[in-house]
Amino acid sequence: MVNSANTSIPVRTLSVRRNAQAINVLISSRKPSEYPEMMIQLRNVARKLKAQSKRHNVKTSTTNGYTCLEIGAREGRLLQSWPDDTPLPTEYVALERNPKYNPLLRRNMREKRVTGSIIHSRRSPIQIESLQRRKNKFDLIIFSHCLYWMSSRAAEIVDETVETLLHENGICLIFHHAFGFYSLWHLMERQFSRNEPLHVQPHSSGSSAVQLVSAIKRIQQERQQQQERLLSRKSSGSPKRPAESSEFPYSIVVAAMDPCPLYLNAMQPRQWDEVLSFIFQVEASELPPTVREEAIQLVLGSATQTNEETDATPLGTSLHCSTSRHYPSGARSISSGSHSSVASTILTSSSHHSTIDGSEHTTQKTIRDQKHNFWLHHPHVTIKIVKDEGA
């Protein structure tokens, strides 16, 4: 038995096969509430990119349109749900690790009449040769709820992908849960005596959106410090030429679990068993009734609550980060073209709730930390990076 001195409840660890079954129930239960919010964010981004491509003074990969890479496309449900009033990309490339989704994905591409291709790979986007060989970078890169599986490297993969594959003035849109419900199992683990160890390791490091933004910020700050040290040694005190600015938006959109009647509160006991089984990695139907109820309350308590007194949606939050990237003279040749980075981060919550990582969000309340220029504010956020290129 895998246990500790203070555990007392015998449980069966979920098998790999059962894990796949349980997550499908969670995904299907989430559909009514999640996609409308995702479509709002997608519409705003697509319209901006379409308008941007028509401006002669803004660099894009194509004229009168935009190109898109969707990472974690699965069966193409995002493409299938694409609003009629939202411009489609002139080129759509889907990256999906599981080839079983290929028939449905191709069908959705045909029905939407988009030109593009499908890449099946388990590698990071920057390790895929066909993407590296592209003549033009992408105007829009979408991570569709796939960063949970990338575990501790999620922030690094986002950062590398943006640096390598995103076009100047492009947008990276990340759909990610507002709280780390993949890590909820830690809260009950001490009560369990497992018959065998966990089979699905991402549960130990699944991050909330707050943690993801924080990790991206840390990576970029470390790069900035390294680059400044290199530039300091190379410049030997010589004056720098003035920088020229151009916008480089980078958006993180969060689709949080929604406990409204359309979702968690409306689930049947069998659905709850599957959701709890996935989150806590045990056969939840075998739990004692009091323990099962405790697990349900933990999930509900960690989800985003609707506040009818505000214009907050029950569907989650958007996260934005406004940063400055500086390219002093000669900086582009340093460290394979990597850039310095985050000057500030804006993080917004849409409602009253506490996240699993301990940060408390309250509506219409702003908290400022002058040291990091970091704040929480209602109702929405957009992550923005200002990219300065040396003259």
Report on this model:
Residues 226-235, 329-353 have a biased composition (Low complexity). Residues 226-245, 324-364 are annotated as: Disordered. Keywords: Methyltransferase, Transferase. This protein has 391 residues and is α/β, with parallel strands linked by helices. The chain has a single domain, classed as Vaccinia Virus protein VP39 (Rossmann fold). Helix content is 32%, strand content 21%. It is built from 9 helices and 17 strands. The protein has helices at 16-53, 77-80, 102-112, 129-132, 154-165, 186-189, 209-235, 269-280, 289-302; strands at 9-11, 67-71, 91-96, 116-120, 138-144, 166-176, 192-194, 243-249, 251-254, 318-320, 322-327, 345-348, 353-354, 360-361, 367-369, 374-377, 384-390. The strands form 4 sheets. It has a 10-stranded mixed β-sheet, with helices on both faces. β3 (91-96), α3 and β4 (116-120) form a beta-alpha-beta unit. α1 (16-53) packs across α8 and α5 (154-165) crosses α7 (209-235). The protein is globular and about 65 Å long. The N and C termini lie far apart (65 Å). Residues 1-5, 242-249, 254-262 and 304-391 have low confidence and may be disordered.
